[in-house]
TrEMBL record:
Lineage: Bacteria, Bacillati, Actinomycetota, Actinomycetes, Micromonosporales
Protein name: Pyridoxamine 5'-phosphate oxidase N-terminal domain-containing protein
PANTHER family listed in its UniProt record: HEME OXYGENASE HI_0854-RELATED (PTHR35176), PYRIDOXAMINE 5'-PHOSPHATE OXIDASE-RELATED FMN-BINDING (PTHR35176:SF4)
One Gene Ontology term, aspect cellular component: cytosol
Keyword Repressor: no
One annotated GO molecular function: coenzyme F420 binding
Length: 172
């Protein structure tokens, strides 16, 4: 994974507070089980739903049923936001990931991800032709969201830090 460009926002942080290190943000992404996925419906209305996710290899992975609203939204517009954190006001770290959801269909990678879902979340997924299969035989479409931008909001002290991930064109 590319090391992000860190941009501390002092205007929305307590005086003297430091930027949150990327390692702290990545720890939240690795250990969090539930995230909120925000997508856009065909008519432009937002759609937000909680779902489990797995951080692996610099990519946040999600799974959704092939008939669910979020799958329909991502098929039409793969830009999305995933957020996680804590409901506490005076402690913890909230993290927001912006990116594009890309379907993962390669069987070997799906098997790796199914093993991660089992080890982290104790969910049993089999692997079908190009998707997860749950014990009832339903398809679960798997997506990877590589961050374009991540925001962290510390709450003890209050901080706001942005992490940008330059594309290959930006580095040329």
């Amino acid at each position: 994974m590319t090391t992000p460009i860190v941009e501390f926002n002092g205007d929305f942080s307590e005086p003297g507070a430091p930027a949150v290190p990327w390692a702290d943000v990545e720890r939240v992404l690795t250990t969090s089980e539930m995230f909120f996925l925000s997508t856009v419906r065909a008519d432009g209305r937002p759609h937000v739903t909680p779902l489990p996710a797995v951080w692996d290899g610099g990519v946040l992975h999600i799974c959704t049923g092939d008939q669910e609203q979020k799958a329909k939204n991502l098929a039409r517009n793969p830009s999305c936001v995933l957020s996680t954190g804590t409901s506490a006001l005076h402690g913890g770290l909230d993290v927001v990931v912006e990116g594009v959801a890309v379907r993962i269909t390669e069987p070997a990678r799906l098997r790796e991800l199914a093993a991660l879902w089992k080890s982290k979340l104790d969910w049993d997924f089999g692997v079908g032709e190009d998707a997860f299969r749950d014990p009832a035989g339903r398809n679960g479409l798997v997506y990877g969201v590589r961050p374009a931008k991540v925001l962290s909001f510390g709450k003890g002290p209050y901080t706001q830090t942005r992490y940008r991930f330059p594309s290959a064109e930006d580095l040329a």
